[in-house]
């Protein structure tokens, strides 16, 4: 369903830190370890050649492109962000401004906010910095933990960042340039690899590099509700929403489209018990009951639907539960729940599609419906997603 449009392969760039899909001429921008920022355009031969190759002062670590403003921001290892304008013909990258955002620490991620005309960034030293486009630094905030990625809501001033230990932390940037902590969302294990803020739905999506699930946090609902989406068998590398769908791509190239109009339920909380809640057999740590009933303790499992603590024999059934985000891979279930789930309940809310590549990083442009992927062999592949969206 995803048609391949072309590929860029140039190992001389070293490791590519980020890619961005350009809006016309099937273009791509890359920033990489060899300090270069390159614009690649598809020639009439079908091959990709760089129309721009510009070298910065240090290896590049991040890239942000605003298509509407033709603005390109490249962050480097020594903490500087360079701001460029890309010409209409995509052949000239004109330098506009340089921001000394982070002192001698790599720019982990940078983001341009067109509403405020700010450039915001997080650095490897753990600071969040925001500046005006003329280079005037507005603030510098020391984050309470090591940031991996962030999102910014320009209207409310909410900053969402994912840290090294699996937490998603929400801060609020006040008009007087003061930052207040709002809440810490705990749910992931392992470093947060992706965060995506859908401002119209007021939902935040997150994934971690040690897990295969995506969590959808209902920020607008203000109740701390979240839903787990469990369709992937490898960690998720890319998250986007478009219209009423969520798109997630994992490290082995499985692309899942989740229908967001479907009503989903929170995952069941796992019950704590010393014995099976169906047959009452003691779990192996319940020495007292094992002794009085002369029974061997058994391992504890949980029904994914109701959350009851059960022994293996009372939870050996498996089913998908799309309503709770278990879309394709059947999960452990008790007899009662299994019988209450009908065949129509098992029809997935999501569709999946296998891309012919593994995925290290990537970018989607929804205007042109093009997906750019960097894979482990350092090849950049372009896909047309029109049929899938
Ligand atoms: Zn049992
Ligand atoms: Zn159950």
Describe the protein's architecture and organization.
Helices cover 3% and strands 50% of the residues. It is mainly beta. It has two domains: 3-267 and 350-384, Methylamine Dehydrogenase, Chain H, CATH 2.130.10; 287-346, Herpes Virus-1, CATH 3.30.40. The strands form nine sheets. It has a four-stranded antiparallel beta sheet, with no helix packed on it. Strands 2-3-4-5 form a four-stranded antiparallel beta sheet, with no helix packed on it. The mean pLDDT is 93. Residues 276, 278-279, 281, 310-311, 313-314 line the site of one zinc ion.
Q: Which features does this protein show?
A:
389 residues, mainly beta, Methylamine Dehydrogenase, Chain H, Herpes Virus-1, 2 domains, 4-stranded antiparallel beta sheet, binds zinc ion
Topology:
Blueprint: E1 3-9, E2 16-21, E3 28-32, E4 36-42, E5 48-55, E6 60-66, E7 71-76, E8 80-86, E9 93-100, E10 107-113, E11 118-123, E12 127-132, E13 137-142, E14 147-153, E15 158-163, E16 167-173, E17 179-186, E18 192-198, E19 203-208, E20 214-218, E21 226-229, E22 236-242, E23 245-250, E24 254-259, H1 287-293, E25 301-302, E26 309-310, E27 317-321, E28 326-333, H2 335-340, E29 350-354, E30 361-365, E31 370-374, E32 379-384
Antiparallel strand pairs: 1-32, 2-3, 3-4, 4-5, 6-7, 7-8, 8-9, 10-11, 11-12, 12-13, 14-15, 15-16, 16-17, 18-19, 19-20, 20-21, 22-23, 23-24, 24-29, 25-26, 27-28, 30-31, 31-32
Bound molecules: zinc ion (2 copies).
One zinc ion is lined by residues 303, 305-306, 308, 333-334, 336-337.
